[in-house]
Amino acid sequence: MVTESRSYKASFKDVYDASLEALKKCGLIVKERKESSIKATSDLSLLSWGESVEVFIKREREGVKVEVSSAPVAQLFDWGKSSENVSRVFLNIESELSKRQKR
């Protein structure tokens, strides 16, 4: 399992919406949405039986903290796929937040 967190100076709603959109842009299938978390999965690939990706969103005093976790569904090794998932989700969150700030 790979987990990483980052903080953003944006509204909770903007970060939540950007996280949801980021998961979709990564080709992940959103399975569950709660007030402060989103769970998604990936399809099977040549290197993986799929991954489970979770995004946790928490209000902080000066912004919003996002924690992204990725783990393989049915195998011990993921050949770097979990790390790639986490990086791609954050890249897309930041891209979405940038678009929202320009409005």
Mean pLDDT: 91
Regions with little confidence, pLDDT below 50 for 5+ residues: none
- What's the total count of β strands? 5
Largest sheet: 5 strands, antiparallel
Globular, elongated, flat, extended or rod-shaped: what is the shape?
A: elongated
- How is the CATH topology named? Alpha-D-Glucose-1,6-Bisphosphate, Chain A, domain 4
**Helix-strand pattern, N to C?**
EHEEEEH
CATH secondary-structure class = Alpha Beta
Q: How would you characterize the overall build of this protein?
A:
- This protein is of the alpha+beta class and 103 residues long.
- It has a single domain, classed as Alpha-D-Glucose-1,6-Bisphosphate, Chain A, domain 4.
- The chain contains 2 helices and 5 strands.
- The chain has helices at 12-25, 81-102; strands spanning 2-8, 29-34, 37-41, 51-60, 63-72.
- The protein has a 5-stranded antiparallel beta sheet with strand order 1-5-4-3-2.
- A hairpin with a 2-residue loop joins strand 2 and strand 3.
- Helix 1 (12-25) packs across helix 2 (81-102).
- The protein starts with a strand and ends with a helix.
- The mean pLDDT is 91.
